[in-house]
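REVIEWER CHECKLIST
Item 1: Sequence provided? yes
Item 2: Single chain? yes
Item 3: Sequence as submitted:
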Amino acid sequence: MPQKKYSVTLKTDQKTMLLIQGVVLLVVGILLCCSVSLDNIVNVILGVALLLGGLINLVICFIEHKSIIRAEGVFASALIAVGVLCFIRNIIQVTPLITMFIIVVGVVALLDGLLGLLPAVNRKRVPTLVEAIVGAALFALGMCLWFIADFARFASLILGIAFIVLSVLIFISVFVLSSGKRVK
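Item 4: Structure as written out by the authors:
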């Protein structure tokens, strides 16, 4: 029985969006791999953003109402308070967030892979099995990050490597699919 061959090509706007996604993932992946103190960096950026947002809201409230003791002023004060806490106490903990992200992505990929194996879904077996295996591996890796304290310090490195690999896969798919080569 002869196999059908399909020609898959991407439109220019699709290629552009995929390339932008790939570049963003690559840059974020490299930054995650190189970051020594990710929690401090995130807290400083968030602190600056919250302080600026609070101050801008205070100014707007004063311009509009000629008073800052209003609902908008109280909200702006809360933004400023959280911004200051970001500087003083590093209130945002990035490592548990990354760990939970890896666990949830693993569970979602595993679940999607297992659901894809159902006869009613009618998906190709090999990619669906690969998805389920990758999901199980991500889930296991996330659980190790969650429960093993010494292993948790590598969370940003692991997520960075995953983003770099994903960006490389995006680049490969863009250039292979854009060349008009046949895909089985």
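Item 5: Key structural point noted by reviewer: The chain has seven helices and two strands.
Item 6: Recommendation: ____
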